[in-house]
């Protein structure tokens, strides 16, 4: 069993006890524990179930690489799935639940998959869920969805807050182990600003656990002094609990600081995302120990040798009482020696190397530990915890020579430098055959804007595996980074660690070396996604020779741990099966983040009300106070309708429409884009932008215009008013103001840069109000001022003048078919003008109306709306707008595109009105079906609904749609199946259903 | 997250201040152009692993369009220059030739 010892535990405070629960079971730990160390201290070996086979799994690592110990953490608004127990600091009241089992962790029905394992090989999903095709949607997909995922999604809104930090610095040091700290000081001595980020809560990394001496100090004392010294340097910033999550273009670094995960509910943000620009990045991210691939290497109690050492030294926890150590290198001897010194029984060291190790082996032997060279683990027996190890010859097929009962196994397959950051932005790796590892290739570093290296790898991350090598490498790396960041180096004394030579590793990718098939099928590579040696070999046999393909076929390295333990072993097995060299097979691509970071941190402050800026018109507060039911339009909020008394929103819309048709309504159109285009070439410029001829427009007149992109598709529409010879005011759609202004600037700056034209976006400078309805003129005339008669200001004219006490610009334009005045006043006057109009209009029954009434009114008139009738594939000719396309112009944006054969084809879907045979309202977006079906067995289509409303004017549904050869098929009835199971029949009619001759707007 | 220096306002702009505008130095083909020329203008784009010429706009800065000559593989930036030219400036071409001997991009190089 695993248990807490009375001694050891450099990181825990035994005077501070913390209560917590695991699956509801009360447990106790100490301040300084991780959840994993506390679970082990409570003999909780079994912590979860694996993804595919639901195998019992225990803690295997002690840090960010942990694949098994993922838990649901917290409750309610602080619930979070898939939290690594090894990097979760313990706090009082912590509540963790294990994942991926039913009904309980101890008894899991899903484990039946484990017995079916031979029927669930690599690529199972691709093979099983292919046929018959009809099963895809309703049989296979629900099944796959059911079994996907480990934890549960949170149900409540996150109670915590998050924030972003923006930082510029000279050097970022990723990793606060001895290498990172030494490098930081060496860089800082030049005067460079240095930011040191460490993912754990404590400094020094593995060194204090592994021992040794630096500059005549024991490693822990050296680290303590060095941290203190760095803290005292004005140009150095240190942050613990802050992981460098990724390295990106031009020295952009993301840091992920877990500010208060260990004190939930504390004031301030929970996580902080550091958005850093650095001139140089020192990658001092250490190395990750590799598991050994032997049968039963996933039984709870089998652990990385380094992790077992960590639990003992850092947290005073022994992973077992009787331990067997399996290794192919010297480092695992440190674990055996440490355990032995702490009083744990070390039954055997199985060293796959025929000749064993060096000085560390001698030390272990002196302590009385039995060492078997050339021996291997044939198989670990046990279900929910280790029972025994069958020992075999390493150079064999796994025939057991002996079975030894034990309760824990420490394994070490060697170390892989954590090269993730180095690789994120293009740094390349080299295979070191002697050390059996991929390490950063200094000559192919990630490069910055100047084409020079922007990162320096150092320490274990650079393949330096002894303390002596690490200290020397880190000192040099710090100076190199400072110099590359543009700083002059000063004289400084090098850092020296005592030499402790180790004998060479012997690569072991499978244990024993010629393991028989039954053992290979129980030798795990990827714990979290349940990928075994036999799966990778099967993939190779089935032709998946590229490591990227094998990864996807077997899911090796695709779990939340991204293969930190499995990738190198997996690709080595692949290389071996293919008979290729490891560097020839290569690695999969390392992508950020290093470990998963919270969505909250990515979002930062941008949520709720500050998710994006809200644009308000000058009359916004008035609308809100008068029952506005808001509709988001771009970043604006516009009233959808003004709900009064006991009516619902649809009744409000109907009332507003009728009131405009019969009396007078008021619409806030301030959001419409108002772009000023000015200059000697303004007319020429607008002739290129609009499909119509704008240069012939007379000052004082308005013209409706269409804009297309170079691909011929309609992108915006609106009324253009000519102010004077050189000046035009272009109205755009609400959503189009910024986009069309940018469109104008793009063409002016990049194509016609010699044309004399300026543009300005005046959208927010003016409040604009549409006074609409047969009584509109009466309301305005009551206020006095300029002459608004038909003769003085006819339809499609505009004029500056006074209305009451307001300086106004009045446009006689109409988007409703009624008599309409769109009146612009300075934005600061908007609210006063609106209230004045409401007051003056009271005797005429004036009412405000919203965007939905606007839509109904324009649809009754057959007016198109950008975004409804257009979707980026529609040309003006499709919409019956040929009259707005000048035949006289040689060129305009989109003209050449519209000449293409399929644009001119009569077979296009074209705009028509649709009248349901029973007067009902067509479903929005519904498709009209045609005879026959397509290659996917779906009904052929011949059109779709683009706008559909209930028309209170006509007392029935009205709609517009795009229909194949529509205008040639007037009177024909076509069918629209709805998603409600009903089929709607509609007659093809003229899209204009109200005042076709336009008499009402022209009075 | 690139940093590009806006040649108009001199700001070393973070990518979040900029909008990408695709390939630079396209020649416009309008009415009267044959199908092949028009297709090339509208759709055919270079997608090199290496030297590339791009359009960028300093959208959240001075609003100006400019061009960047950079390497899509190494992320090296050879220079930025105003958009009101139809060919890259000579000094930038020289810089590229020094960094990537034998480079080709459309009919440049």
Automatic annotation (TrEMBL), chain A:
The SoxA A3 domain, residue ranges: 522-603
- What superkingdom does the record give? Bacteria
Keyword hit for Oxidoreductase? yes
InterPro entries (alphabetical): 2Fe-2S-bd_N, FAD/NAD-bd_sf, FAD/NAD-binding_dom, GcvT/YgfZ/DmdA, GcvT/YgfZ_C, GcvT_C, GCVT_N, Sarcosine_oxidase_asu
Q: Which family does it belong to?
A: Belongs to the GcvT family.
Q: Which organism is it from?
A: Seohaeicola zhoushanensis
Keywords assigned by UniProt, alphabetized: Oxidoreductase
Indicate what this protein is called per its UniProt record: Sarcosine oxidase subunit alpha
From TrEMBL, chain B:
Q: Which domain of life is it from?
A: Bacteria
Q: Which GO terms describe its biological process?
A: tetrahydrofolate metabolic process
Q: Which Gene3D superfamilies match?
A: Folate-binding superfamily
Q: Which GO terms describe its molecular function?
A: sarcosine oxidase activity
Q: Which InterPro entries match?
A: SoxD, SoxD_sf
Which ranges form a coiled coil?
none
State what protein this is by name.
Answer: Sarcosine oxidase subunit delta
């Amino acid at each position: 069993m695993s248990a807490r010892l009375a001694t050891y535990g450099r990181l825990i405070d035994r005077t501070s006890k913390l209560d917590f629960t695991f699956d509801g079971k009360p447990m106790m730990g100490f301040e300084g524990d991780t959840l994993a160390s506390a679970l082990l201290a409570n003999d909780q070996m079994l912590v979860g179930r694996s993804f595919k086979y639901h195998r019992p799994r225990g803690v295997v690592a002690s840090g960010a690489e942990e694949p098994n110990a993922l838990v649901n953490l917290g409750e309610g608004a602080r619930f979070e799935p898939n939290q690594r127990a090894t990097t979760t600091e313990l706090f009082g009241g912590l509540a963790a639940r294990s994942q991926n089992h039913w009904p309980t962790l101890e008894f899991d029905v899903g484990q039946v998959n484990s017995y079916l394992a031979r029927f669930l090989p690599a690529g199972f999903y691709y093979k099983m869920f292919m046929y018959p095709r009809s099963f895809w949607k309703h049989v296979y997909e629900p099944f796959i969805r059911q079994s996907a995922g480990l934890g549960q999604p949170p149900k409540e809104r996150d109670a915590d807050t998050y924030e972003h930090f923006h930082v510029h610095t000279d050097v970022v040091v990723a990793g606060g182990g001895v290498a990172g700290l030494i490098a930081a000081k060496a860089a800082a001595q030049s005067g460079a600003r240095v930011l040191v980020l460490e993912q754990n809560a404590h400094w020094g990394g593995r060194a204090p656990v592994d021992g040794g001496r630096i500059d005549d100090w024991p490693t822990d004392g050296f680290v303590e002094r060095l941290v203190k010294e760095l803290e005292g340097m004005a140009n150095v910033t240190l942050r613990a609990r802050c992981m460098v999550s990724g390295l990106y273009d031009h020295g952009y670094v993301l840091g992920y600081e877990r500010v208060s995960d260990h004190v939930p509910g504390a004031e301030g943000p929970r996580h902080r995302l550091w958005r850093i620009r650095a001139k140089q990045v020192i990658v001092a991210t250490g190395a990750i120990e590799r598991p050994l691939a032997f049968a039963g290497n996933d039984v709870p109690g089998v652990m990385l040798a380094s992790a077992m050492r960590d639990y003992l030294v850092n947290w005073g926890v022994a992973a077992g009482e009787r331990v067997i150590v399996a290794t192919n290198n010297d480092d695992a001897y440190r674990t055996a020696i440490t355990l032995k010194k702490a009083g744990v029984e070390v039954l055997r060291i199985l060293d796959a190397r025929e000749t064993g190790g060096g000085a560390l082996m001698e030390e272990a032997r002196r302590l009385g530990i039995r060492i078997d060279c050339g021996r291997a683990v044939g198989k670990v027996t046990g279900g929910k915890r280790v029972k025994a190890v069958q020992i075999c010859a390493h150079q064999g097929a796994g025939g057991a020579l002996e079975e030894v009962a034990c309760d824990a196994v420490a394994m070490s397959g060697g170390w892989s430098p954590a090269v993730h950051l180095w690789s994120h932005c293009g740094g390349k790796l080299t295979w070191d055959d002697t050390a059996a590892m991929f390490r950063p290739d200094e000559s192919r570093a990630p490069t910055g804007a100047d084409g020079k290296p922007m990162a320096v790898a150092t320490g274990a991350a650079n393949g330096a595996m002894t303390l002596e090598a690490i200290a020397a490498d880190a000192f040099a790396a710090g100076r190199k980074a400072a110099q590359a960041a543009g700083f002059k180096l000063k004289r400084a004394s090098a850092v020296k660690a005592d030499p402790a030579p180790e004998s060479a590793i012997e690569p072991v990718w499978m244990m024993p070396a010629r393991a028989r098939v039954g053992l290979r099928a129980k030798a795990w590579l990827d714990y979290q996604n349940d990928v075994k040696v036999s799966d990778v070999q099967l993939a190779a046999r089935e032709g998946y020779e590229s490591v990227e393909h094998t990864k996807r076929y077997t899911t090796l390295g695709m779990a939340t741990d991204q293969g930190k333990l499995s990738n190198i072993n997996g690709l080595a097995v692949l290389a071996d099966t293919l008979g290729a060299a490891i560097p020839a097979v290569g690695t999969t691509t390392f992508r950020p983040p290093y470990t998963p970071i919270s969505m909250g941190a990515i979002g930062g402050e941008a949520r709720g009300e500050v998710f994006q800026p809200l644009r308000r018109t000058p009359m916004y507060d008035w609308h809100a106070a008068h029952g506005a039911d808001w509709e988001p339009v771009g970043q604006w909020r516009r009233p959808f309708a003004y709900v009064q008394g006991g009516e619902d929103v649809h009744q409000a819309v109907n009332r507003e429409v009728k009131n405009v048709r019969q009396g007078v309504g008021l619409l806030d159109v301030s959001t419409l884009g108002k772009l000023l285009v000015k200059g000697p070439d303004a007319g020429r410029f607008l002739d290129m932008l609009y499909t119509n001829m704008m240069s012939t427009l007379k000052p004082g007149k308005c013209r409706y215009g269409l804009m297309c992109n170079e691909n011929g598709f309609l992108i915006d529409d609106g009324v253009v008013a000519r102010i004077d010879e050189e000046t035009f005011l272009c109205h755009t759609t609400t959503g189009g103001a910024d986009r069309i202004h940018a469109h104008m600037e793009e063409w002016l700056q990049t194509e016609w840069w010699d044309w004399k034209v300026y543009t300005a976006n005046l959208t927010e400078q003016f409040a604009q109000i549409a006074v609409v309805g047969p009584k509109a003129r009466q309301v305005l005339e009551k206020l006095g001022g300029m002459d608004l008669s038909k003769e003085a200001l006819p339809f499609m004219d505009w004029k500056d003048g006074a209305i009451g006490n307001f300086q106004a610009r009045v446009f006689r334009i109409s988007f409703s078919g009624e008599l309409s005045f769109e009146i612009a006043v300075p934005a600061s006057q908007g609210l006063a003008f609106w209230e004045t109009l409401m007051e003056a209009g009271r005797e005429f029954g004036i009412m405000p109306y919203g965007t939905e009434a606007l839509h109904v009114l324009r649809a009754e008139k057959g007016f198109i709306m950008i975004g409804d009738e257009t979707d980026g594939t529609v040309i003006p000719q499709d919409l019956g707008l040929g009259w707005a396309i000048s035949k006289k112009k040689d060129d305009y944006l989109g003209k050449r595109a519209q000449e293409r054969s399929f644009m001119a084809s009569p077979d296009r879907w074209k705009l028509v009105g649709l009248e349901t045979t029973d007067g009902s309202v067509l479903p929005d977006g519904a498709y009209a079906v045609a005879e026959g079906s397509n290659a996917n067995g779906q009904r052929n289509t011949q059109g779709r609904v683009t706008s559909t409303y209930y028309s209170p004017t006509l007392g029935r549904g009205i709609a517009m749609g795009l229909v194949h050869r529509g205008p040639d098929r007037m009177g024909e009835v076509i069918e629209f199946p709805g998603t409600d199971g009903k089929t709607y029949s509609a007659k093809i009619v003229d899209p204009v259903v109200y005042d076709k001759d336009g008499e009402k707007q022209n009075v | 997250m690139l940093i590009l220096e806006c040649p108009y306002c001199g700001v070393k702009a973070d990518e979040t201040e900029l909008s990408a505008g695709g390939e630079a130095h396209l020649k416009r083909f309008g009415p009267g152009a044959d199908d092949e020329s028009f297709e090339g203008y509208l759709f055919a784009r270079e997608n090199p692993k290496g030297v590339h010429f791009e359009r960028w706009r300093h959208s959240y800065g001075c609003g100006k369009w400019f061009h960047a000559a950079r390497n899509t593989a190494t992320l090296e930036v050879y220079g930025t220059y105003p958009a009101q030219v139809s060919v890259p400036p000579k000094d930038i071409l020289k810089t590229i030739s020094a960094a990537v001997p034998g480079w080709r991009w459309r009919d440049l190089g």
